[in-house]
Amino acid sequence: MDIMVLKSQQWMNDTYGGDSRYTRVAEDGATGWGTINGLIIALQIELGMAETAAVIGPTTRGKFNAKYPGGITRQAADDTDTDNVHSIIQCALWCKGYYAETGSITGYYKGQSADSVEELKADMGIGGNSTVTMEIMEALLSMKQFVLLSGYGGTEAIRGIQQTINKDYKNYTGIIPCDGLYGREMNTAIIQVLQAVEGFAPEVSNGNFGNGTKGALKVINATNAAANPDWVWIASVALICNGYLDNTERKWVPALQLAIETFQVAHALPITRQLDVNTWMSLFISKGNPDRAALGCDCATVLNADKATALYNEGYRYVGRYLTGYVGSGSTARPKAMTKEELSAVFSAGLRVFAIYQDNNPVVSYYTYEQGLEDGVKAFNAAKNLGVPEGEFIYFAVDCDMMDYQVTANAIPYFRGIREALKGKPLYYKVGIYGSRNTCTRVSDEGLAKSSFVGDMSTGYSGNMGYRIPTNWAFDQFHEYVFTGASVNFDLDKDAYSGR
After folding, report:
1. I need a labelling partner for 28 at 20 to 30 A (CA). Which of 317, 324, 355, 406 fits?
2. Model's pTM, two decimal places?
3. 268: alpha, beta or left, given left = phi > 0 and alpha = psi -120 to 50?
């Protein structure tokens, strides 16, 4: 319990508890969304809003800017006027961990409160005086952190980048956290910075990597880097975020070129040693360039000789296929499981196969230790009946968006069940995992999977954007399309192949 957070909660409840627009907050001394939302509503009440909601939108911004056109400024030392909005600032500062005032909510905006806002701005990377604009108020009334969270994996290098983005690009990104952590919010921000470098206006730089962003990319190399320092800088930022470079650069140096080459090798991209479209897109979005060629693919269609030959002729050499199950439901259901006849046709066409197990409704609650025991046995029996050789991988699918705590609570116990189920079998199959980057990495780090088939196509998954590709990835699913090279069209996923 933080005593000043508790006093902030008590002050809010005492001040606004009788107002129907306000919902009382828990008085537990812990900063959380409940407390932050209470402060947002308190501000809206002070701004005279008839209807309140725990979100800062255009109405809140408009009323704040109308009331404080120059922002909220530091009071003179001898000024004794108090204001509830000053108290809201003090409460927000305490919730952020800044030393607002000694022991109480005073209603003043001077002294330690104003000094703390200057400290906050320095931590943001923007510097400046103690004036609280709407931009600063929004940052105060959020869960964003502006101090290094080294205990959670934050680094000084990432924090320095975050501060630079706030200083130079906040009209594109808004104020972003400066906690040293590379996650989804920062990933969106660096795409917005890339869009700024490409020449897009702030109002259209939304952090989505679409065709417009792709079409405006420049190929940057040693020859033209000196004329494009901003392009070099944002590339170095993305390389640092992905773990391939230590320092930002604005010119082409050997360490930068080595990092680009190492990144291309690690992601099975063409080794061009320059910043080309494939490299740019893989640096910023998990699926990379969906138009790039791939050696691997996977599908839920049972393949015959025609389909298998067409895949080979298209350049594919590896195809992922399911051990069990159906697609569709009711009268439209059709089997997706491999057959011995299919394997014969696939091998005759020159393709190799990797085995996938997914025979479920992919929701988080499905994944338990007990279900892992059951699925491990089903997968083993199916693989054995097909004649899958000992030592082959079976990629067990976690085909849903898991938050990190859900990986701990669900995915890891599920794979412990699989390991137990396969223990001591006369034939032994290696355990692989299909899932988001974070899910694959976490399960593999527990020693429960030795190879990853990464579902990078799902860029909206919380476990993909802002996470590095697993070091043990074998296949990387990055694009779904309708394959038209056979007599019957069918859905196909393109999978990069690492050689592992």
Report:
1. 406
2. 0.90
3. left
